[in-house]
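Lecture 7, part 2: worked example. A protein chain together with flavin-adenine dinucleotide.
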Amino acid sequence: MALLRRPILMLARSGRVKEMVTTMPVSAGIVRRYVAGERTADAVRATRELVDAGLTTSIDYLGEDTTDEKRAEATVGAYLELLQALHDAGLATSAEVSVKLSAIGQYLPGGDRVALENARRICRAAGNVGTTVTLDMEDHTTTDATLHTLRELRQDFPGTGAVLQAYLRRTEADCRRLATEGSRVRLCKGAYDEPEDVAFTDRVDVDRSYVRCLKALLAGDGYPMIATHDPRMIAIAQHLVDESGRERGSYEFQMLYGTRPEEQRRLAGLGERMRVYVPYGEEWYGYLMRRLAERPQNLSFFLRSLLSQK
Ligand SMILES: Cc1cc2nc3c(=O)[nH]c(=O)nc-3n(C[C@H](O)[C@H](O)[C@H](O)COP(=O)(O)OP(=O)(O)OC[C@H]3O[C@@H](n4cnc5c(N)ncnc54)[C@H](O)[C@@H]3O)c2cc1C
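Predicted complex, written out as structure tokens:
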């Protein structure tokens, strides 16, 4: 199944495949499973349900690789509206937001500056309602720029978090650098199709790297956010947490909306902090294809969803 990951990600770049898939309504089985809906109210509703079950959320307004200024501005607007709606619903302290810099201007002329200014606006709005922002990490060509933006943002908004991807060879060193007081780091395996010179491509090597990175984060003074659905990584994390003497609440687990929901509730039931990453919005294509690539068992479910709309 791991062999299917790269072909699925490559196929996802085809315009025809995109056209065929995006004619599916968001209500189609496979989309609905991974995406909360298209509107702000859908993200708020999903958060309410998860919070009622003892979980917290990080909400992502879907979209990436924007080359259109209006689109980037609309994305910032969507986050501002979302943060206000969470505040109005009394949910802002249980939900933070996840932001992709490529959705808010990184690929526009003067992109790094535009993305930084837009990220500042979102961080300010988040701070005003008592919550924080985490910068998602995209493909490896953007890692340095994203970490630079993070450093800038943290000067004014110290709670801003970032994602590090264990499949990148550089990440263990990045974890050591970022494991400092107040630093929120989400550690995931990584979801993009990366070349071998920058990334481990064998699953076993990625898992080993994940454990080394986790050790570095837990040994430091930051706030590790352990983002994985992998039962082995979760068991190892729990063991390493016990060994490190860290208190509950000085780290958290994170999983994606629709993935292993029973496990999310089980961990929360054990008293662990569990945050669910909730994506919403009309631009769900790239996100859905990455989820399919890492779980090709879902392909038959996906094809049934595609055919049932005909
Ligand atoms: C909160 C969060 C935020 C993320 N943010 C980013 C980001 O910014 N950038 C980025 O590149 N990636 C991000 N990711 C995606 C991440 O990089 C991985 O692609 C994704 O989490 C799959 O890796 P995994 O650790 O779950 O394990 P995998 O190696 O995919 O799976 C290992 C095992 O976990 C179990 N498992 C995995 N998926 C399922 C499933 N659907 N159903 C049942 N069991 C399953 C199975 O036992 C499987 O064998 C994020 C993930 C999370 C959870």
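Residues 136-137, 163, 165, 186, 188-192, 227-231, 233, 254-256, 259-260, 277, 294-295 surround flavin-adenine dinucleotide (CB under 6 Å). The mean pLDDT is 92. Keep this in mind for problem set question 3.
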